Amino acid sequence: MSELLPNYLQGRWQTGSGNGIALFDPVLGDELVRADAGGLDLAAGFAFARERGGDALRALSYRERGALLGAIVQVLQANKEAYYAIATANSGTVMNDSGIDIEGAIITLGMYAELGKTLGDAHFLRDGEPAHLGMNPLFQSQHVQVPAEGLALFINAFNFPSWGLWEKAGPALLSGVPVVVKPATVTAWLTQRMVKDVIDAGVLPAGALSIICGSSAGLQDALRPFDVLSFTGSADTAATIRSHPAVAAHSVRTNIEADSVNSALLLPGETSDSEAFGLLVREVVNEMTAKSGQKCTAIRRIFVPESLYSAAAEGIAAKLATITVGNPRNDSVRMGSLVGRAQLVNVNEGLAKLSAATTVLHDGRKASLIDVDPAVAACIGPVLLGTRDADGTTTVHDTEVFGPVATLLPYRTLEHALALARRGQGSLAASLYGNNTDMLATAALGLAGSHGRLHVVSPDVAQLHTGHGNAMPQSLHGGPGRAGGGEELGGPRALAFYHRRAAVQASTAVLAKLPR
């Protein structure tokens, strides 16, 4: 039996009481480690985090907490080689895809470390200017934001074991809120190793960072009203989380990121030889294949003018045909595996559902896999689907296949295209491609009410844009409706989730005494 990953709770390492759940190499099929959280005293562990970790963090200024994030960055930088090896073994990702997760986490933490310097030596945030409460300006109202006096529980998804932790933990720790992370079990090894390195380095106060590997049973039961909960995963699990008494009865603040059928849209007026057309094709292929399509922001629907449907199908298929799939340890491989055989089953089931309403335009499943046993590896080539009847099918607008799969759809007018994009019922991201700046701006605002982020790509930013699927720390990550209704990142906006807003009504003399 392989090693059991220890959990870190109550300021000490603890192994679960059971045999644990095995984590596998999704390419070779080897058992790597096991995860188990059985027998842990969650209530005591959470109390330790709130009292010891929370008190210690809140005693520091934003500048001092930012310095802690900077110290974490140094620890992660020093151990990157080990993280890449774990990502290859446990997530089956090629080096570039591992970098999206690992380097993305470090960049995000670095940005919040710098934000701490900007916020300076304060211990709370002023929220706007004082407001007069009557004719006499002596009595006024000043809104403030103070750190939440609880803990932040993260129940994370399997696709980003590094970035998924640190993009949340950065704003939480900077805000003065201790963190308990429960990574998705199938890829928990990388998260656990990173937490272990940070704990071993001694850069954080006791109780500021804890990790639980294994089952999530009982986690919400241990939450208290001033805690906050962030979840990334399926809409079905999100519904269960929202119905738990901690949320429904005790109002634990909750941030949800769930399913998202994201779009790429080529604006009217383009031709098959235009630069915008080429940019769309390139980005679609990149989003379908990066991390084997296992990104919550990946492009799932591609909208093009009716006249360009065939050209887009041919252009995307031609580039997909060059993607080599297999063992990420082989230098000739461009795309690695899914995270496991169970995910391969899910992708194939989703493909069967979509295929009933579409035509297969490119089938990467027919290509040979490189340096793997197809009966063992969780590898699948990219699949492009399409239908000329974008209005007649609901399946393509409702179904997210979490793998290297996208569907091509034609539209008649810009208004028609925007209406089709909105049929995703709320998405994390949409990208727009074109040359007409007026039309691009109109389309971006037209989709702003149903999307968390609009990524606008015109030829002048062809070499500058950060990519449809990359959640940059300066921009909002989240989306309305079926995407979960949550908000993360967005620079300093991320701190709001970990603060409590209050109004202080007092004389101007008292308000002047509020520390700067």
Summarize the entry for a quick read.
This protein is an alpha/beta fold and 516 residues long. Helix content is 35%, strand content 22%. It has a 7-stranded mixed sheet with strand order 15-16-17-14-13-18-19, with helices on both faces. The chain has a 5-stranded parallel sheet with strand order 10-9-8-11-12, with helices on both faces. A 3-stranded mixed sheet has the order 1-5-4.
Secondary-structure blueprint:
Layout: E1 4-5, E2 7-9, E3 12-14, E4 21-24, E5 31-35, H1 42-58, H2 62-78, H3 80-91, H4 95-119, E6 125-132, E7 139-147, E8 152-155, H5 163-175, E9 179-182, H6 188-201, E10 209-211, E11 228-232, H7 235-243, H8 245-248, E12 253-257, E13 262-266, H9 275-289, E14 299-305, H10 309-320, H11 341-355, E15 359-363, E16 383-386, H12 395-398, E17 405-411, H13 414-422, E18 427-433, H14 437-447, E19 451-457, E20 476-479, E21 486-489, E22 499-507, H15 508-512
Parallel strand pairs: 1-5, 8-9, 8-11, 9-10, 11-12, 13-14, 13-18, 14-17, 16-17, 18-19
Antiparallel strand pairs: 2-3, 4-5, 6-7, 7-22, 15-16, 20-21
